Amino acid sequence: MKVFVLALERRLNGVAMFGACLMLAIASSLGMYQVITRFVLEQPAEWSEVLIRFTLIWMVFLGIPTAFRLGAMVSVDVLYRALPRAPRRALETLIAFAGLFLLAVIVWFGIDYAMRGSVQTIIGLESFSMTWAYAAMPVGALFAMVGVIGNWFDPKREELETAQ
Prior knowledge:
- The protein is mostly helical and about 160 residues long.
- About 80% of the residues lie in helices and about 5% in strands.
- Strands 1-2 form a two-stranded antiparallel sheet.
């Protein structure tokens, strides 16, 4: 079971990180395009700014699973360091349940928000629904839930090793 969950988590985390990197590349390219059209050609493209904003939102929500997997999001460093080895697993379990609860709330309300946004259009991209922008919340949270479970099975606390 543990091997299956960790293999699934590794693959899904890779997909999410690839998506986050792709969104960053798209946002960077659009930013360069926007600078060229606005300042060199003096013909600004209004749609590019809106698209940059949405790709950055998707980038963040697709990057969050990696942070959860590495144990870098919900951190109780002082308490974790103060506890003896035995109660640390209980603290990790409590942190995992708290993270899963928060992510479940984000999924629940994110889906609701995305459905409500289906009647709105994106300013500058009138042919697209706001659902595409709002869907980043539940999608990212679902990927992050897998990261939390993976971190519970195979804890990594890299922020403790790199903290000064």
